[in-house]
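Morning. Coffee machine broken again, so started the prediction first thing and wrote up yesterday's gels while waiting. Chain of 208 residues, entered below exactly as on the submission form.
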Amino acid sequence: VTIDNKVNSDKIPAFLATNNKVGGALCADQLVANLKAKGVPLKGTVGLVSAMAGIQVLGDRDQGFRDRMKEIAPDINVLETRFTDNDIAKSLAAAEDIGTSQGDKLIGIFADNNHTGDGVARMISERNLGDKLVAVAYDSDPEEVSALKSGALKGLILQDPYGMGYKGCATAVTLLDGGKVPKYLDTGAVAVTKDNMNDKKIQDLLDP
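Came back before lunch.
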């Protein structure tokens, strides 16, 4: 049984993971909802900072984000993806470069994992841009949680790592007992904001 990252083999009876294209679309929904709430016209540019090229789950998140942005905010230009080797300092530098090069045209940034989220949040905090830019990110770590509380990040899309492990074990037991399981099980993605981050269910996802 494989979890999170798919192995291309017919010998794997079950795969449990987030639907990352759906998660990426949720990020776009959060970004646009925040822009609308601030009264910002849906025009301008949005940066995309990715941890690494060639990784299926990240590529799915980015594509899901781009596709949804085209659908709900077609006049916003999502910039070319900036890859940062899953490094917080490089993600900070990429966010700074996007901010400098785009100036007032930049209205938002999407970061596709926790390290890129940390880097983008640092740029926004250091430049005091929390009221100007809408940044959303994927996953959760203590720095991202702090950034959500401060407003540097407006939304996080959370997976369910505990649930993946628990359901993965249950799936393996079912298979060992001769039972049938789905080939793919979507383990879900949840949008978290400052408004719902203290809910019990969300707390369990933020800090499993």
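The first strand starts at residue 2 and ends at 3. Going to sketch it on the whiteboard this afternoon.
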